[in-house]
Amino acid sequence: MRSDIIKRLIEAHSEGDNRAFRKAALQLAAAESSAGHSRIADDIRRQIAALPLRHGPDSVVDIARPRGELAEILEGGHRRERLGDLILSPEKCEELEKVLHENRSRAALERHGLSPRRRLLFHGPPGCGKTLAATVIAGEMGLPLLTLRLASLFSRFLGATANHLCSVFDEMPRRPGVYLFDEFDAIAQARGESQDVGEMRRVVTAFLQFMDADQSPSLLIAATNHPELLDRAVFRRFDVVLAFSMPDEQQLRALIRLRLRSYTIAEKVVDRVAPLGAGLSFADLGRACDDALRTMVLDGREEPTLEDLEGAFTKAQQRAHDQQRARGR
């Protein structure tokens, strides 16, 4: 059986079929695991995870699509975002670049008894780049982004939530990827608000145990808007903790230029529009730029005008104000 898999590996390599090559390599890892060669199987999976992904119609591999019960808990796919799509402070960009470099150099680190940092906690206000940063890491690593569906994770049945978590962690060595636990505070928040406090404590305990036992090549990223709700024990499990914040004036201008880079935007236009974006999140600013471009397209023009941008940013401020009022702030 393994000889057939090796033959398919050679054929896929000679034909430049990245998808078939990865699929055959994963089959080889499964065959080695079935034969009791777990260390060899893990080595193969780690090497597959470190391979760069060539994007294109044939590059989306099966590991990006959870199957069976996991399809109800995880949603996944390959992403094309890169570091250039992310606007952060130089210090945070440098930290993410180090994490990427470490994970690409896993084999070299392991030869010295070291391991890459792969457990990251992102916290900060909504719309400030936490999810995008996870997406960028997946894109840079050529790995699928697998996002946990919290609504499906939590169950009314005793013990089922911990079992769902176990299924996710069991999948990490088999399906290398970037696993995103978005709205991570839901665990701590639910524990405080739930009538079954004991059950939620068991969930948190189970999560900590799964994190401690995980030796997979996958990256685990948790994102939360409310870090104050997390247990200290949870904080200590992460290798990297990054605080995301609202954009400053320089980042605001950079985002406008980035989102409108395909168009001719004079610097004086950026100067006029930037003050209108003060206090908006990165997500709000991105939506405002898109709204301006929609107006441009619907009016049959090829370039956005100052009026398009001013109108879109003014409406974005009104939406943000309405949302704050709805939240009772």
TrEMBL record:
Q: Does the keyword Protease apply?
A: yes
Lineage of producing organism = Bacteria, Pseudomonadati, Myxococcota, Polyangia, Nannocystales
List the EC numbers from the record. Answer: 3.4.24.-
In which domain of life is the source organism classified?
Answer: Bacteria
- GO biological process terms, semicolon-separated: proteolysis
The protein's GO terms of the molecular function aspect are: ATP binding; ATP hydrolysis activity; metallopeptidase activity
> InterPro entries, per this entry?
AAA+_ATPase (IPR003593), AAA_ATPase_domain (IPR050168), ATPase_AAA_core (IPR003959), P-loop_NTPase (IPR027417)
User: Which UniProt keywords are present, listed alphabetically?
Assistant: Hydrolase, Metalloprotease, Protease
Top EC category: hydrolase
Its name, as the record gives it, is ATP-dependent zinc metalloprotease FtsH
SMART domains according to UniProt: AAA
Domain AAA+ ATPase residues, every copy: 116-248
